[in-house]
Give the backbone structure.
Amino acid sequence: MESLTNTIQSVPLNHYILLSTIIFSIGVTGVLIRRNAIVIFMSVELMLNAVNLLLTAFSVYRGDASGQVFVFFIMALAAAEVAVGLAIIVMIYRNTNSVDINVLNRLKW
């Protein structure tokens, strides 16, 4: 465990911040631009992973495990999101034969 901490601390914190910013930006772009529900779903997961990376890096640099505890809870939330989100996407596909979110207005009353 000590070698992992030394490896993580050997990379400057700015690099983790930059990488997390890039990953989060790709996720936001995917949510805003794409119309496919599965791609949007994966983009939200990218944003959660960017936050997890940043929380882990800050946690290791500060020597405090509370950031890693938050990462655990975010991963549990992401697992629940995957289960519910994929079930919703499958039901939408069964009703509309498409995962395009523009087709979802047909589901209105």
User: Anything to note?
Assistant: The chain has a mean pLDDT of 87. Helices lie at 2-10, 13-33, 37-62, 66-96. The radius of gyration is 18 Å. The CA atoms of residues 96 and 105 lie 10 Å apart.
